[in-house]
């Protein structure tokens, strides 16, 4: 007799964070690196 | 009180040494900001409660930790030079090792 | 080529002339052999080649001659070699050879001397069964209400095997009676007067429990059923074949051009034809299922009709997405219906995982922008550091 149908259940795709939040953290990192360079220059460690 | 006193003496000695040596200042500032970058990445993971993609997360942390370690090795060799090792060698090793680290992290993230 | 084994001392061959002539008119080459006539066994094989397509065994008295002519092992070998067999027994003649052979298949006819009786029927001396008791429309699909005459008949018990094709069961009010013995072999509809068996090679066997069923005197009542039963037994009807089982990417690209990888969209199709006695015609069904298997089925889909031509009806799964698991998979259509010949189509293919460059790139995933910017920031700061360190004195 006809057997019950089977349909494969796929693994859920991993969720991706919203673009604004990712961009916010990118901006924070950019500012951190910038402040590192500014600190170097200000403290005369770098010329 | 003894601990407080010891801490204050250590801090004074540290800043005296660093202020007199621009190279040490360079290294220590770099290390501090690497720690900051690690904290920012950790805050991101805590916020989204997920470390996907895992290879990217590892890359980001490894470059901070690896660079910190290489800086420490360079710092250790900045004081008295070791016998039979030329003065420029620690810096040369630092540059080569850093390049290898950057190469690995850039490829691992992809 | 059909071999007819008979015992003139048990049943006169001429009593079956109506059905035997009907077979000859349908281009069957009948060879007759009286089991008492020769002391040597008949050759069913010439080395490994089967000499006959079908065997008809009519009722025989005494099992020794039949056992010499067609021992159980020979019958099994013949049946497994895609030869069809029709066995007819009666309450007075159930040779051991036939009984043991049928037992191998899960068919247990009542022993010698056991007769089916129905004291509630209009004629208690003989068994008359209505067409309501027919169990398989692929063997015989009666368009009108008929009464089949069985006379004196045995009944069989059946094992619960998928390859057994029950054809006609006994009336509810019947039972198998033996003189002098209290217990009955069958009671009611648990007994079967006609039953079939189809092996995995699509060879067929039919057993009829009554010698009167095929006799000329009952041809008016039984001829349609008997004719269709013989057609079914000798693979003249209800023969189905599958053709052109194919699968490809949804856009038509074949596996050989671009091997499958996980989560690809693919389409599977297969055609079915049925032999109607004269030619192949499209086989229409709504219960053909396709499976995609790796040990267990990942998909089981009921096929829907697609195109058709004069001989074949094609069925398709429509588009479906391959599982997100790589490995070796079997594209399988195993169509088995009681009474129809079995078809089994399988194709084993590898489904590969994604290559390194088939995953989304890191910059396409918003989560990894943070880590990419960290790496770039550290590298930029490092360049600045190296220049400063080299140009600054200690």
- Helix/strand class of chain C: alpha+beta
- The end-to-end distance of chain B, rounded to whole angstroms, is 53 Å
Order of helices and strands of chain B: HHHH
Beta-strand fraction estimate of chain B: under 5%
By oligomeric state, this entry counts as heterotrimer
Number of strands of chain C: 24
Task: Give the terminus-to-terminus CA distance of chain C.
Answer: 108 Å
Rounded to an integer in angstroms, the radius of gyration calculated over CA atoms of chain C is 32 Å
Structural class computed from helices and strand pairing of chain B: mainly alpha
- pLDDT < 50 stretches of chain C: none
Helix share bin of chain B = over 70%
Question: How would you describe this protein?
Answer:
The complex is a heterotrimer of chains A (47), B (110) and C (394). With 47 residues, chain A is mostly helical. In chain A, 51% of the residues lie in helices and 0% in strands. Chain A contains one helix and no strands. Chain A is rod-shaped and about 85 Å long. Chain B is mostly helical and 110 residues long. Chain B has one domain (1-109). By secondary structure, chain C is of the alpha+beta class. Chain C contains six helices and 24 strands. Chain C is elongated and about 125 Å long. The N and C termini of chain C lie far apart (108 Å). The model of chain C has no long low-confidence stretch (mean pLDDT 92). Chains in contact: A-B, A-C, B-C.
TL;DR?
With 47 residues, chain A is mainly α. Chain A has one helix spanning 19-42. Chain C is an alpha+beta fold and 394 residues long.
Output the keywords.
heterotrimer; A: 1 helix; C: 394 residues; alpha+beta; seven-stranded mixed beta sheet; five-stranded antiparallel beta sheet; 6 helices
